[in-house]
Amino acid sequence: MTKKLAAILLAAVLLGGCYAGAVVTPTPFAGQTETAAPGVTRLPQSGGEITIPMPAEPYTTHPLFIRQTEMSNIYSMLFEPLIAIDEKMLPAVSIANSWEFDTESDSVIVRLRSGVRFHDNTELTASDVVFTFNTILDSPDSTYYSTVSKYILSAEATDAYTVRFEVKKACYAVYYSLSVPIIPESVYSGVPAQTDITPVGSGGFAVASMSMSPASMVMVRNTYWWKKQPYIERIRAVGYSDNAAAISAFINGELDCVPTAIYTTDIYDGYSGVSCYSYMSNYYDFIAPNFKNAILRDVNIRRAISYAIDRKSIIANIYISHGISMEYPFASDLAFNNTDIPRYDYSLAAACELLEEAGWTPGEDGIREKGGKRLSFRLITLRSDDNPVRRDTAAMIKRQLAYAGIELQVETLNAEQLNAAIEDGAFDLALTGYYLSGSPDVSFAVRTGGVGNIMGYSDAVCDGLLDELDSARTREEYAEVYGRLQQYVAQQLPQIGLIGFSHTLLHRDSLVPTGINRDLRVYENIDKWYIDKDK
Question: How many Cα atoms occupy the beta-carbon half-sphere of 504 within 13 Å?
Fold first, then answer.
């Protein structure tokens, strides 16, 4: 499999972006004051135990080489990142409490918080940070953190609490690539990627006991934690073969919560003592127009297609309201999003007007024609018997575009066939998706030759804006250029965005979760969760 196809399949760039500038004013760490949630008259209660799911057969217990979503979720409470990403998708203090760009060299200076201790009571220092990043840079097997190498050349400890990173791009989004869990060199030195050693981090919970056959963990409060102690006292993780088995266990009362990506969770909301907590994922589906097709190179044709798609209807009827309309590959909750960019809310009238202006008029069967040629496209997407969502979405889009006089010939392909067709450019339109990270960097999707630019889109103005981003050294500079990039992408519409997906945490009414910002980090703020002993 080529690197390009691997990126398309993973839909990926799990870290990304760039930062650099003068001294940063980091986003403060939220949640340090003890206040009741809106509408809640009493403060959170301390104590209690909950049970959560984990994989029955973890690929590894090494935090830098995990490959399963469930392990990433669990590790978000065992390990802390050098720099956190907050609910506004901005870099925030964590193990690092300040950072700045050295204007005399292509390097970032990161200063660590003193007094941070690992679960074994050893102090976290700059040497552990350097060891962590060298482990990633030296290995091709770090699935979630492999893109660190896109931004970081090397790391050097200049004293016990300071690290100098030599960077490839002296720009703002490099700080997103530093959102990596820091591990103790004394524990992980010489440990292979695949291992079953007990995880040791610096997070709010520590592993008290662990078994690999069958897989299970018992986690307790980390008494050495530099932050306020979690409310929940003890967490048990039990292994299940898959998410369906975990949900079944939850319904049978074996688990207190289970994160899931399935769309039918509303049925569980009616169960006695069960609640659903919705949170955004990083999954984004879109239609890729092939720029080899001369008709699709006409921006008004792409705009007409976008106007003719009723995203709200697709979300309501196929995804059962588990998602939001998302017309571009920009995270919806990024703090410096441009709110004035053009929108393509469903408008059949607007779609038809654009097509008329382009000279496409309805034929006898309603499909538009121009110069004897029908306005007809071949759309390819993934065929999956286990998950027919893409197939059903393609079928609904076919019906919607027909109202505008656009014919779609939908072809569902297996994964191998789909990848081959995309690699060869053998399609007009492709219904597919990305896994977007918390990074604002979208160069992989819209830059000429970008690893995820399956459209074949190439635009000098867009590339120029991306180049400007690569040299924007402050949050303000980056936000200004980013706003112009969003405006341009919205006008040019190199891809036709559809949906950003939401996931669900099924939980007991007695468990009060909060602060779930994204998938892969479901338990990141579990120190603020508590058990309501009155329920």
Answer: 23
Burial class, 254, CB count within 10 angstroms (exposed 0-12 / middle 13-18 / buried 19+): middle
Greatest pairwise CA separation for the chain in angstroms: 78
Residue (of 287, 445, 515, 511) closest to 379 by Cα position: 287
Which pair of tokens denotes residue 6?
Answer: 């691997």
* Structure token digits, residue 81: 């990142």
**Cα separations in angstroms, 240 against 197, 251, 255, 333:** 20, 14, 11, 32
Q: What is the pLDDT along the chain (535 residues), one digit of tens a residue?
A: 343 333 333 333 333 222 222 233 333 433 333 444 445 556 899 999 999 999 999 999 999 999 999 999 999 999 999 999 999 999 999 999 999 999 788 899 999 999 999 999 999 999 999 999 999 999 978 888 988 999 999 999 999 999 999 999 899 999 999 999 999 999 999 999 999 999 999 999 999 999 998 899 999 999 999 999 999 999 999 999 999 999 999 999 999 999 999 998 989 988 999 999 999 999 999 999 999 999 999 999 999 999 999 999 999 999 999 999 999 999 888 999 999 999 999 999 999 999 999 999 999 999 999 999 999 999 999 998 778 999 999 999 999 999 999 999 999 999 999 999 999 999 999 999 999 887 899 999 999 999 999 999 999 999 999 999 999 999 999 999 999 999 999 999 999 999 999 999 999 999 999 999 899 999 999 999 999 988 8
Q: Is the dihedral of CA 132, 138, 142, 148 positive or negative?
A: positive
Round to whole Å and give the CA distance between 361 and 365: 11
- Reading the block at residue 492, the tokens are 């040019």
Q: Quick check: bond before 53 cis, omega within 30?
A: no
Q: Are 278 and 507 in contact (CB under 8 A)?
A: no
Amino acid identity at 487 = Q
Interatomic CA distance for residues 80 and 129, integer angstroms? 11
Run of H or E including 126: helix 126-137
- State the Cα–Cα distance between residues 236 and 219, nearest whole angstrom: 6
For residue 149 the two structure tokens come to: 């190498």
Which helix (H) or strand (E) element contains residue 490? helix 475-492
Encoded tokens for 422: 């995309």
Kindly tell me the sign of the dihedral angle through the C-alpha atoms of 225, 228, 232, 238: negative
Residue 291, both tokens? 């720029």
- State the DSSP H helix or E strand holding residue 373, giving kind and residue range, or none if neither: strand 373-374
Cis amide bond preceding 230, omega within 30: no
Asked if 185 and 127 touch (Cβ cutoff 8 Å), the reply is yes
How far is residue 513 CA from its own chain's centroid? Answer: 20
